[in-house]
């Protein structure tokens, strides 16, 4: 039995196979509409989510399966003090696969040790968000035609942004990747990402303060919001929340084939005017997320294609 706890749980070859399956699903959704009949997905979301939770539910329903679960810790027995281990022991009696989001780093790992069914990490604190990374990879590959030899700009909250941490860890496996890390000093990437991931693997990167100055070099611009829920005091959040706001004016020097990604939700870090720019890909990204999660559910449950 396999779990998906971090992006590196799948090799480059397995990731390519998964993205290929997601691409086939995109082209012919009807052919996969019944492959999960009789199967159940449980969504255990201990912190709020709109896109990720609904994306998982849509994925399972699109495959002909059904869903159950809860959307906040208050709506579960966690409010009574039940442990993650006990919750998973119980829920794995009801469902065939579990997608779990939790504010504590490592909680899905703990869940995997007690579960009788595959666990998918749907985000754990500021740590990992592997299915968002798979979504990002599919988006980049679909738009650029490759996952190698490009300069990727990561902008905003790089300290607490689990989507950023996961994407860096995954992209370094492809040749010719260079990162431009754009953030205020207080929100720069954690030391373990800088030292254990980038420097250890000799990946070229620069840390800068200016979004505008970086723009001409970028093939992908990955925007993130400053996450209020990750701050210990509101004063720091208020001071940093408007650090980087992407506007059409700031895109003037960007490449014509540069694409803008964002894991969403956005607050104000991308002006609404940018939505009309042909390089804005963050809503396409949402749709790709459904196909990727459909493919991942099939892979983890070892469901064979019949088409």
Structure description:
With 307 residues, the chain is α/β, with parallel strands linked by helices. The protein is built from 10 helices and 9 strands. Helix 6 links the parallel strand 5 and strand 6. The radius of gyration is 19 Å and the shape is globular. It starts with 11 loop residues before the first helix and ends in a 7-residue tail after the last helix.
Question: What does the secondary structure layout of this molecule look like, with pairings?
Answer:
Elements: H1 12-27, E1 40-45, H2 51-62, E2 66-70, H3 84-91, E3 97-102, H4 107-114, E4 119-124, H5 130-144, E5 150-155, H6 162-171, E6 177-182, H7 191-199, E7 205-208, H8 211-214, E8 220-223, H9 234-240, E9 259-261, H10 282-300
Parallel strand pairs: 1-2, 1-3, 3-4, 5-6, 5-8, 6-7, 8-9
Helix pairs in contact: 1-10, 2-10, 3-4, 5-6, 5-10
Summary tags:
10 helices, alpha/beta, 307 residues, 15% strand, five-stranded parallel beta sheet, globular
